[in-house]
Design brief:
This protein has 258 residues and is of the alpha/beta class. Helix content is 44%, strand content 13%. α2 crosses α10 and α5 packs parallel to α7.
Length: 258
């Protein structure tokens, strides 16, 4: 047994898959793992974006563009990952999108598109990569699946993003379902529920709403790359070895204390 930080929190040598990995929270996670000695496989719908980030991160990063809202693309992506590695130690299901519209006008496409990428892809990509996760898993150091939810799956947002909120609430409960059933296979499943972090998604929110959120956040600031990196590294390392079906809310207290 070792209680040294270098042993508890190390992710060196691990192979990590990060979906939605070209920007925002996905980029924060990818950079954190590369800077700490892991190899990262990045996915994003836009090939140019994910290839550009991989170029910045160097030889430890492998880009595999894919539209994970489509079942055929999930299967293709999983097959491509298997060509690159025979083990996946950590899978971050981060790919996601949002859609806002009033209740009376909310369209079916705004429901189906968001559910497919935010919720459906989490389950089916995990399913398609399960053999690679099992290949990396040991009783001493489980493989990990980390699903990226949202505080909008925990509280009622002032924004009318019905399918987004429903999908993220689904992600958090799906995490618990997966955790219970995959733990006997030495695979831990946990989730992160981020609050406000700089991203394309938060940039599209009206300034008034963003300002009100900041005013009601006890820590009086938005999340930083360091904030996300710390949680992500924790959940992929031995330090989180006894977490099963947990959701780590990283929101500066915005939703958790409201």
């Amino acid at each position: 047994m070792s209680l040294r930080i270098a042993d508890l929190f190390s992710v060196a040598g691990k192979t990590v898959v990060v979906t939605g990995g070209s920007r925002g929270i996905g980029e924060m996670i990818a950079r954190a793992y590369v800077e700490n000695g892991a190899k990262v496989i990045l996915s994003s719908r836009k090939a140019a974006d994910v290839e550009a980030l991989a170029g910045q991160l160097g030889s430890a990063a492998t880009p595999i563009p894919a539209d994970l809202s489509q079942m055929a693309e999930i299967e293709r992506f999983a097959a491509e990952v298997a060509k690159v590695t025979d083990k996946v130690h950590v899978l971050f299901n981060n790919a996601g999108a949002s859609w806002g519209a009033g209740f009376d006008e909310f369209p079916e496409i705004g429901w189906d598109k968001i559910m497919d990428i935010n919720l459906k892809s989490v389950f089916f990509l995990s399913q398609k990569l399960i053999h690679l996760l099992e290949a990396a898993a040991t009783p001493e150091d489980n493989a990990r699946i980390v699903n990226i939810g949202s505080i909008d799956g925990q509280h009622v947002s002032p924004i009318e993003t019905y399918s987004y909120a429903a999908s993220k609430a689904g992600v958090l409960h799906l995490t618990r379902m997966m955790a219970r059933n995959l733990a006997p296979r030495n695979i831990q499943v946990n989730a992160i529920a981020p609050g406000y972090f700089p991203s394309k998604m938060t940039a599209g929110i009206a300034d008034e709403i963003n300002n009100n959120a900041l005013k009601t956040t006890p820590m009086a600031r938005w999340g930083t790359p360091e904030d996300m990196a710390g949680v992500a590294l924790f959940l992929g390392s031995k330090a989180s070895a006894y977490l099963c079906g947990a959701t780590v809310t990283a929101d500066g207290g915005y939703a958790t204390t409201a």
